[in-house]
Structure formats: C-alpha cells, structure tokens
C-alpha cells in the first residue's frame, strides 16, 4: 500500500507523518487497502474560503472516499481520516459478516433433465414434478456446470422467473437425501 499526497505543502510535515502512521496501522496485515490518495484544495464553499481534504482509497473490490471541508486544512485532514477509518472498518465488518453467512441448504431436490452446454443452461425436474430452468452461474458448492450429467441428483433453490420457475442455486444433494 502506498500513500500519495496531492498538494502536500498544504499540511505540516508532522500532520502528514501522523496521518501516514494512522493509515499504515489501519492497513496492518489486511492487504485490502491498495492505494491511498490524499488531496487538498481551497474552495469558495464558505465566504472566506475553506480547505477541502479528500481521502480516496482503492480497496479490494471497492473505492472508499472520505472528504471534509473546514476553514483549517489540518482539521479537515484529521476529520477526513477519521471518516476514512470508519469506512474501512465498516467494509471489513461487512466482509466478515458475509463470510459467516452460509447459504441455506437448498430446500428442493430433483434430477438434471436436460443440459444445453452451448447455451450455458439446463433444466431440472424436481421431486414435485416441476421442470425448472437453471443458468450455469447457479451451479455451486462443489458442482461444476460442465460436470453435470442427465439424471444426476441435485438440490436447488427455486424462484419465479420471467418465463417460469428458475433455480437460483444448484448444489450436490445432502448425503441423507432420499433417492429420486
């Protein structure tokens, strides 16, 4: 991770050093912060002008932007970095929550009825006798679209699609699932 300053002369050396230490501590061993750019500019936002400080960070899969405008550049810098830290922690918390959430076991069981490899889709007949469309992107949890064969037992989640029922998720059936 690298911290880049645009118009660094706006800040004291001590302010820049303090901010870089905060950002490096925030980055720690995570590896999710790729590039941090800090810029300052004078605005006419207030009657006598003010300093706008922006912290823009390229993070894995996301861009984080924090900005503050204050009469004093040092104050705007500190507040923008405070907001930036909160946003990084919020991003990391969301990622942690997503990892903890496991997809529910698919409630329906069925067998693969037809596979259209060139179109990247197929159909499953559920145990209830319904023919359900699925796209190759719905196949997961240890299954591969190219490895599916007609008559294979699968578990799936179903929802109403534009042209009928469609599977939103297809996985291997649980070990204790009844046969077709």
Main sheet characteristics: 5 strands, mixed, barrel
Radius of gyration: 26 Å
**CATH class group of the largest domain:** Alpha Beta
Strand line-up across the major sheet: 5-6-7-9-8
Mean model confidence by pLDDT: 88
Question: In one word, what is the shape?
Answer: elongated
Question: Which consecutive residue ranges, at least 5 long each, have pLDDT under 50?
Answer: none
Topology, number of strands: 9
Q: Estimate the strand proportion.
A: 35-45%
- CATH homologous superfamily descriptor of the largest domain: Ribosome hibernation promotion factor-like
CATH architecture of the largest domain: 2-Layer Sandwich
Order of helices and strands: EHEEEHEEEEE
CATH topology of the largest domain: Double Stranded RNA Binding Domain
Proportion of helical residues:
10-25%
* Total of DSSP H or I helical runs spanning 4+ residues: 2
Distance between the termini: 54 Å
Class per helix and strand makeup: alpha+beta
Integer count of domains: 2
How would you characterize this protein structure?
This protein has 180 residues and is α+β, with helices and mostly antiparallel strands. It folds into two domains: 2-100, Double Stranded RNA Binding Domain; 108-171, Nucleic acid-binding proteins (OB fold (Dihydrolipoamide Acetyltransferase, E2P)). It has two helices and nine strands, in the order βαβββαβββββ. It has a five-stranded mixed β-barrel. A four-stranded mixed beta sheet has the order 1-2-3-4. A hairpin with a 4-residue loop joins strand 6 (121-126) and strand 7. Helix 1 runs parallel beside helix 2 (73-100). The mean pLDDT is 88.
């Amino acid at each position: 991770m690298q911290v880049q300053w645009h118009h660094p002369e706006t800040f004291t050396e001590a302010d820049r050093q303090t901010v870089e230490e905060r950002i490096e501590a925030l980055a720690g061993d995570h590896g999710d912060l790729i590039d941090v750019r800090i810029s300052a500019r004078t605005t006419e936002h207030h009657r006598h002008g003010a300093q706008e400080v922006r912290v823009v960070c390229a993070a894995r899969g996301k861009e984080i932007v924090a900005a503050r405008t204050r009469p004093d550049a040092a104050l705007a810098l500190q507040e923008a970095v405070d907001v930036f830290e909160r946003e990084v922690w919020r991003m990391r918390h969301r990622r942690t929550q997503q990892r903890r959430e496991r997809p529910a076991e698919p409630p329906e069981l069925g067998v693969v009825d037809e596979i259209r490899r060139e179109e990247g889709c197929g159909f499953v007949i559920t145990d209830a006798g319904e023919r359900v469309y699925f796209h190759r992107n719905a196949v997961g949890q240890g299954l591969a679209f190219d490895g599916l064969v007609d008559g294979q037992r699968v578990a799936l989640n179903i929802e109403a699609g534009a042209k009928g029922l469609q599977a939103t998720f297809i996985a291997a059936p649980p070990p204790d699932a009844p046969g077709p």
